[in-house]
Here is the input.
Amino acid sequence: MGYYTRVFCSSQKKPKISEILENLKSSGFTVGANLDVKNLDNSEWTNFELIYDSERLPLLIELNEIGKSDELAEEEISEFIEFVGEPKFLELKKKKVIKHLKKSNYIICIQLPTSDINDEGYNVNGELMTYIERNFSGMTQADREGFYLNNELLIELE
Here is the structure.
């Protein structure tokens, strides 16, 4: 069974896989992808396998864009808005999350293979989410945890 983290991005610009790999490498990780070199510079990608350890299952990375993902991105955003619930007057963090979800243009979803992952895999995922959040106007969500911005837990989800 997989564990999912997501970065909801409001940027119009999308990351290229080559940029993701370069950032992870410059942060000290040895990573690769299951794609050939010509596909690494394409910003219109939808998924790839992020290889961090040849002896482990890869992280599965998916980009779901509003208007281009067979309604998957729209459905996911709607489900999270519903799950977060209607904010009360002083629930400013909840309002911030809902506002960000509504202005998101795409979601980068990372599936972590919990049956076959080590600390390095979790660290790669953390660095990846931080990079996407900071460079593509993102807000991070982790299953069974909640929504984060700049490593601060905004709202907890069960």
